[in-house]
Specification:
Elements: H1 4-23, H2 28-42, E1 57-63, H3 64-69, H4 74-80, E2 85-91, H5 93-105, E3 112-116, H6 120-125, H7 133-137, H8 149-153, E4 156-157, E5 160-161, E6 164-169, E7 172-176, H9 177-182, H10 192-205, E8 210-213, H11 222-230, E9 236-237, E10 242-243, H12 248-262, H13 276-281, E11 285-290, H14 293-301, E12 309-312, E13 322-323, E14 325-331, H15 338-349, H16 351-361, H17 382-388, E15 391-392, H18 400-415, H19 421-435, H20 437-444
Parallel strand pairs: 1-2, 1-3, 8-11, 13-15
Antiparallel strand pairs: 3-14, 4-5, 6-14, 7-11, 7-12, 9-10
């Protein structure tokens, strides 16, 4: 067993790798500030929380609209626990990641924060997160069996839980009922083969309509990876430290994904439509894969179309998996009042709080019992409830977002005819190996767990 100093050295080494990588995008002077802050943290600031805050105050960082709307819930919590003050700081998503890393380096992290679930592995690797298993074991509010299993597992690193799901999203198929009816289609596709057949029939009935839309922009990487998930393919190997897109199941899945473009079912130029929802509402697109936020957007922008579209779980192959997305609540290891921080997380995790948060933001609750308060009865939301029972997380590594963008970059080149899939895969594996070089080094030094 390691002593505390050994654990801190490992965290500091991993942290310095993350910070050095992130600093490549910053000015040299900013990089020096990062590293200086990290050295100070290694000297002892990691072990203590800033002492200025009163004992019964709690700092909470949240991102985007969630950071604004969660303030509505604060008065009820403060009334329940007199003498408590929750200080909420709302941070734009575009600045959140760097701000959190800077706060870690400077020993200025909040007590509790919202983290996108693809960020958890990175902050766990640098020792920033408090394991929550003991708190969960003694909780009367939070139990694993009340959550969608795939969503709960996104918070597990090794044999420990480091976050509690706050809200979830996943991708399902949106489709135009009226366009299906015109093509003589009575039900949505449930398999890959039915999906291609549906596309053919829509094109025959409406030559000017694209049957489906798959995004190619780099930040929208989910669609091709859904095909990989549904064919039991793999993306990475050797402890998630090397590219593995030459796996036969992965190659088969990507070939099927590319057929939609090759047969003209999906547009290859992302500039063809200025606005995806407008294209869907104008019948230029019959199907699209997207998330729950667009249910509210479609209803708000195009209320007259309410009866002409709906949602369904994704068509599948060997399974019908979708990607597990959303955000979790974490306690940072520098928090000085674990009890109060946990009470705040428990409060936000109560079904009534989750339902209220859904009403404020449209974010889907991660707890199944919260859906029984009125969400599941919405016919447009039923598909999300069903799909959330069949979701999987992407590889839990700090470099995941870089890996995902690189995959999308190479697949776009194939879609546009710049190279074949057979040419792209070895190039892609090579690029992923380069991205994951530091991870391999950390694994060999025993500084990361596989």
């Amino acid at each position: 067993m390691e002593d505390g100093a050994g654990s801190r050295r490992k965290a500091l080494t991993a942290a310095s790798w993350v910070v050095r990588f992130r600093c490549k995008r910053l000015h040299r002077r900013d990089s020096v500030r990062y590293l200086c802050g990290l050295l100070l943290a290694g000297a002892g600031l990691l072990a203590c929380h800033p002492a200025a805050a009163p004992r019964r105050s709690l700092t909470f960082w949240a991102m985007g609209v969630e950071g604004e709307e969660v303030r509505t819930l604060v008065p009820e919590f403060e009334q329940r626990y007199p003498g408590t003050r929750v200080i909420v700081q709302s941070i734009p998503w575009s600045a959140a990641h760097e701000k959190l890393l800077t706060a870690f380096a400077g020993g200025a992290l909040p007590d509790v924060a919202q983290l996108g679930n693809t960020w958890l592995p990175e902050f766990q690797a640098i020792g920033a997160l408090l394991p929550l298993d003991q708190l969960i074991a003694s909780s009367g509010t939070i139990r694993a069996d009340t959550y969608f299993p795939g969503i709960w597992e996104t918070n597990r690193m090794g044999d420990r839980i480091y976050g509690i799901p706050w809200y979830v999203d996943t991708r399902v198929l949106f489709y135009r009922i009226d366009l299906f009816r015109q093509a003589g289609i009575s039900h949505p596709p449930s398999t890959w083969e039915e999906w291609l057949e549906t596309c053919e029939r829509v094109r025959q009935a409406r030559p000017g309509t694209y049957p489906v839309f798959f995004p190619l922009i780099y930040t929208e990487w989910q669609v091709p990876l859904l095909f990989v998930l549904q064919n039991n393919g793999i993306l990475l190997a050797d402890g998630n430290a090397r590219g593995a897109l030459d796996d036969p199941r992965t190659v088969e899945a990507l070939r099927h994904y590319l057929r939609f473009f090759e047969r003209g079912h999906a547009p290859t130029r992302m500039t063809e439509f200025a606005n995806l929802l407008q294209a869907f509402a104008s019948a230029n697109i019959a199907m699209m894969i997207t998330g729950p936020w667009n249910v509210g957007e479609l209803r708000r922008r195009y209320p007259a179309l309410e009866s002409q579209w709906t949602t369904t779980p994704l068509p599948g192959h060997k399974n019908r998996l979708s990607v597990a997305g959303g955000s979790s609540l974490v306690i940072f290891s520098t928090c000085s009042n674990h009890e109060l921080a946990w009470k705040w997380i428990e409060f936000l995790s109560e079904p009534a709080s989750q339902f209220r948060f859904f009403q404020l933001t449209g974010d889907l609750p991660p707890r199944k019992d919260s859906w029984q308060l009125g969400i599941r009865e919405d016919p447009k939301m039923t598909a999300f409830y069903e799909q959330l029972s069949a979701v999987a997380s992407m590889p839990k590594i700090a470099e995941w977002e870089q890996v995902a963008v690189k995959i999308q970059e190479h697949l776009e080149a194939v879609v546009l005819g710049r190279r074949t899939l057979e040419e792209a895969i070895p190039l892609l594996n090579r690029d992923l190996d380069a991205i994951l070089e530091k991870r391999r080094w950390l694994l060999t030094k025993g500084l990361l767990a596989e």
